[in-house]
Amino acid sequence: MSVLEGKELRIVGFLCNWCSYGGADTAGVARATQPTDLRIIRVPCSGRVDPLFVVRALLNGADGVLVSGCHPRDCHYSSGNFYARRRLEILKQFLPVLGIDDRRFEYTWVSAAEGQRWQHVVTTFTERLHNLGPAPQLEDAAPLLKVADMVLTALRPLGTGQNTALDELKAAIVKKLPELECVIGWQQGRDAAHHVPLFIRTPDDVNKLTWGPFNVNNPAVYLPTFKGKKVGIVVKGCDARSVVELLQEHLINREDVTIFSLPCEGTLDMARVDQTLGRYTNLDKVEYDEAGVTITADGTAHRFCMADFAQGKCYGCSTPSAVLADERFGTPVQVTPGEITPPELALLDAMSLEERLSFWHGQMERCLRCYACRNACPLCVCRDYCVSDSRDPHWMTQEDTPREKLFFQAIHALHLAGRCTGCGECQRACPVGIPILALRQQIARAVGQLFHGYAAGMNPEEVPPLLGYEVVEENIQERDWK
Ligand code: FES
What we know:
This protein is α/β, with parallel strands linked by helices. It has 3 domains: about 10-135, Rossmann fold, CATH 3.40.50; about 165-330, no CATH class; about 345-450, no CATH class. It has helices spanning about 20-30, 50-60, 80-100, 115-130, 165-175, 235-250, 270-275, 305-310, 310-315, 345-350, 355-365, 370-375, 400-415, 425-430, 435-450; strands at about 10-15, 40-45, 65-70, 105-110, 180-190, 195-200, 230-235, 255-260, 285-290, 290-295, 300-305, 325-330. The structure holds FE2/S2 (inorganic) cluster. FE2/S2 (inorganic) cluster binds near residues 47 and 81.
């Protein structure tokens, strides 16, 4: 029976075999009184605890999760708990964006000799959870549908980029093409208002190359499939960050890739453009000017001003010019220093935890589980080995439930921790328009705050923060259990 008042709660504890499990044992041998709400899972090291274990437990109905390992510097595998500390701290900052109270998750260090400390940790944590009460369940939250308001001030001029040096770029590609397998860019798709990726293999293909606000795809997604071959790529500023991140992770070789860049003046949010256009039979014409695009379809003209119809990510973009390029064309776009909270994240920031849970319940009911978000992501490189498809281990069921679908989004977001460059392809590719980019943006914000402003895909020489550690972490404030 629980020694605490009230109903016993479901608390899951992941304990390192060498220290904390021994500490719990020491407390037991000493007959130290402890609450019985905790269900202990013994793991070889705290470094073995994947943050997804915690999310899975919390989404499956646990009221709280405790991870405990050896004290820093005492890990029996020397650095497992240093890696764990970074991952678990990011997880702690990620949980609230899902609508889960971060006080329901804690990590700490207890040695095998610290039976008394273990008793204190488990009692304090259990008391906290009893004060919070049973965890609200995703399925019980009333579905809530809300749309993010666009931020109408931008850190950079938004335009259509039609005066840029496209002809010079084409000439440079023709010159370089004999050395390359192909050059990836964009071409007109089903009509002049929809562009799709282009693979330039012959000089004639170069004439199909387009530039402008309809070039929404991120061509970096194709680069890993060309690993080992000489290939060229035309990039916008955000695409270049994905290329840099792929280089940081050694998923492509620098000497194999030729990067051509033009300064980006913004891209259109095609979901809103298509919604405004509605169904049409004939697209009569597309006219560009500096401020936007006018699309005439079935005789009706529709105006899309860039300041109103750009993708959310474009308003706060700080890298409209590529951070890395072999050949640059056009005049760089100036950016006003500052920071804008992306609209999707601002929407969630303004909600309470209960509203966020309701929000994700509503959004995940709409999710088709088509995995378009995963397939469009340039940093989702596991492809056929994705854990969401794996049956061994079986991370996810095939149930068509909001819980499974939210868990998939948590997998995607956490696998991109410290890696996501915010290109927004996941959200753009979503056929039902779920603002899933917010999950990645929250992690990117936490990574920036914890690791000295680190932003993914800025420097090919930098090591992503979750691939390293510091013995003393300046910005990770470990919880005091005294
Ligand atoms: Fe205990 Fe690594 S062995 S945390």
